[in-house]
Amino acid sequence: MSECIFCQIIDGQLPASIVHEDERCVAFMDIHPLGRGHVLVIPKQHAVQLPELDAETAQHLFSVARQVLGAQRALGWGVNGTHILLNDGKAANQMVPHVHVHVIPREKRDALATLGRLALHVTGLFGPSKPRTRLDEQASRLREQLREA
Ligand code: AMP
Ligand code: ZN
């Protein structure tokens, strides 16, 4: 079994609330969301940092991230703003050594709550994870939106 937790998710060895899957990538709900409906998009190919990925796969990740953003907004999440974030390398707070694009919906006046969660994220403590049932429900709503788009 791979030591990489995101490779384990790709291989179905770790649970995840899957939003999208194709031949190049998988998108799933972040277990410690920094905003409502926070999604991660990862390549199926194991790569620690962005420069290790081929250009097409890298472009594909951002294209899927854009589609996810559209689906989130159709559900009313992040309608006033979204972070598309890629922490590339330890000095940039990358905690999981497998490339991932964050799609983090923000809401008006959520800065205080987000800052608290961000502080936990940066320390690697993360805090309590979101219940799986809630993540599954959000993933299912996003999948439905992506199907309709
Ligand atoms: P980063 O600091 O950019 O490496 O962020 C890693 C992200 O992975 C964090 O937002 C974590 O909440 C998320 N994460 C870690 N383990 C899991 C998991 N098993 N399922 C979903 N998200 C995860
Ligand atoms: Zn991996």
How do the helices and strands line up, and which of them pair or pack?
Blueprint lengths: L4 H6 L7 E4 L3 E5 L9 E5 L11 H20 L7 E4 L15 E5 L5 H13 L8 H17 L1
Antiparallel strand pairs: 1-2, 2-3, 3-5, 4-5
Helix pairs in contact: 2-4
The chain binds adenosine monophosphate and zinc ion.
Summarize the structure.
With 149 residues, the chain is α+β, with helices and mostly antiparallel strands. The chain has helices at residues 5-10, 55-74, 111-123, 132-148, and strands at residues 18-21, 25-29, 39-43, 82-85, 101-105. The protein is 38% helix and 15% strand.
Plain-language structure description:
The protein starts with a helix and ends with a helix. The model has no long low-confidence stretch (mean pLDDT 94). The chain has a 5-stranded antiparallel beta sheet. Helix content is 38%, strand content 15%. Helix 2 packs across helix 4. The longest helix is centred in the middle third of the chain and has 20 residues, at 55-74. The protein is built from 4 helices and 5 strands, in the order H-E-E-E-H-E-E-H-H. It is α+β, with helices and mostly antiparallel strands.
